[in-house]
Amino acid sequence: MTERPAQRTPNRQLAALIAEAGFSNAGLARRVDQLGLEHGLDLRYDKTSVTRWLRGQQPRGTTPALIAEVFTRRLGRRLTAQDLGLDACAPVYAGLEFAGSPEEAVDIVSGLWRKDSGSHAELRKIAFTPAGLVVPSRDWLIGKPDERVARGEQPPRVPAQGRAVVPRQRSQTERAPDQRVTGGDIAALRSVGELFRSLDDKYGGGPARQALVRYLEHECEPMLRGTYGEQTGRRLFAAAADLTRLAGWTSYDIAAHGLAQRYFVQALRLSQAAGDRAYGAYVLITMSRQAVYLGHGREAVQLARVAQQGAGSHAPPTVQALLHAVEARGHGVLGEVRACTASLVRAERALETAKQGDEVPYWARFFDEAQLADECGHCHRDLQQYRAAAQHAERALQLRPAAQAPSRLFCRVDLACARLGLGELDQACRLAAEAAGQAAEMRSVRAVEYVRDFERRLEPYKDAAAVRTYRDKVAAALG
Predict the structure, then answer these.
(1) E strand or H helix at 121, and its extent?
(2) Over residues 320-348, mean pLDDT
(3) Which domain of life is it from (predicted)?
(4) How far apart are CA 385 and CA 464, in angstroms?
(5) For residue 291, which of 334, 344, 247, 339 has the smallest C-alpha distance?
């Protein structure tokens, strides 16, 4: 890769960070190349390249941002290219920043909505990075609350840290950015959230995802840039956090994991501006679920524990049960039997203490006996405790209403995996074939992936008649 002509001043900032991180020149070059691969970049740096950087040459393109991210992962604190004595460039990890102020948070998240609405195919290719979970969850846990979110009549504001807010043309039906936000506006945001949540419950996230993102861009952003007092502003940020988390969840459902991660981080920051600590814990739990799905068990456990610490001991029993159950899922992925069992026991005890009439946040009301049985089934499956997995999965299926089609599909695949683990091949194939038929009716990449995962488990039995029949059915359903 062509470099700029050498500068005369050695890069002492980069040298100091290399020493702090304990990298060799070759080790740093290798990590930059590996990180580039996550973003589809074929980089060919070596120890000589790093020597040139130390002498003052500036790497081109997005490489400064990649180098900064390598050090961020190693040292556990967010570093920019400038911190390394390198030229500033467009951040590779835009959207993972935990904004320093509500105004900056609006700039970051609205930029994400706008890009997703206009060119979502490109954003869907962004890689998920486990290291991108560390700084936001830490800053949420120990950061100071926002003292003020109210927004009055003000002159045009310069975006934080040089981020350009690109004006766009509005139709006559769209609200002006400085228009006063009312209680009715916030009620509309909440209603839209309920609508998209119900669509996700019935059909998965795919069908309505893009409409949700456009709504955020065209309706929610002008409200956030509008005029509002302190109380209304907190409620507005809370509604925006909920819709942004839902945009992340629907992105997760279509396997756009890097994009989903960015939505979750921004939803976490918006929840801080709202002053809603409990909802922030729920966002972290959502992030933990994504980490479980992608096989990052250690990060999943850490996120669940940060959520527990942030929510505090006075959270309603249903919320506590949810937090412990999701931690158990992380332990299950790691194969940690004792820790997983202990977390499940805490979840069960918490749910047992829940009483009818308890004040439970709307986002936690889904967590009931059926959901706990589902979580237990997943955990026992991951721990290869197949008899217990089958029992819990069957109970979850019995308790779940037919309207919750995606949840029933995932549960049916878990039951199929448990039956396969018990040697009941015919029954396992029958259950999975039913799930494949359901997956064909949804626009959910996650649902198809569940079915494909079961299919991979069938490889040792590929010559059995039941497996051949199953594969014919799946091919007809999913292609």
Answers:
(1) helix 102-123
(2) 98
(3) Bacteria
(4) 24
(5) 334
Cα 318 from chain centroid?
22
Please report the pLDDT score of residue 129 as a whole number.
85
Distance between CA atoms of residues 416 and 433, nearest Å: 9
Which residue has tokens 């069992």? 341
- Residue 229 in tokens: 């007092």
Alpha helices in 124-229 (DSSP H): 134-142, 183-203, 209-215, 221-224
Output the pLDDT for position 349: 97
User: What residue spans define the domains of the chain?
Assistant: 12-84, 96-150+179-275, 396-479
287: phi then psi, degrees, rounded to nearest 5:
-65, -40
Answer yes or no: is pLDDT of 449 > 60.
yes
User: Which pLDDT band, with edges at 50, 70 and 90, does 406 fall under?
Assistant: confident
For residue 81, give the nearest of 66, 64, 98 by alpha carbon.
64
Long-range contacts (CB closer than 8 Å, 24 or more residues apart) made by 74-81? 74/21, 74/23, 75/17, 75/20, 75/21, 76/134, 76/135, 77/135, 78/135, 79/17
Q: Specify which of 54-58, 168-172, 317-321 reaches the highest per-range mean pLDDT.
A: 317-321
Number of other residues whose CB lies within 10 A of the CB of residue 437: 16
Helix, strand or coil, per DSSP, at residue 410: helix
Cα–Cα distance for residue pair 32/470, rounded to 1 Å: 44
Helix (H, G, I), strand (E, B) or coil at 180: strand
Higher-confidence residue of 2 and 199: namely 199
Report the largest interatomic distance among the alpha carbons of the chain, rounded to a whole angstrom. 73
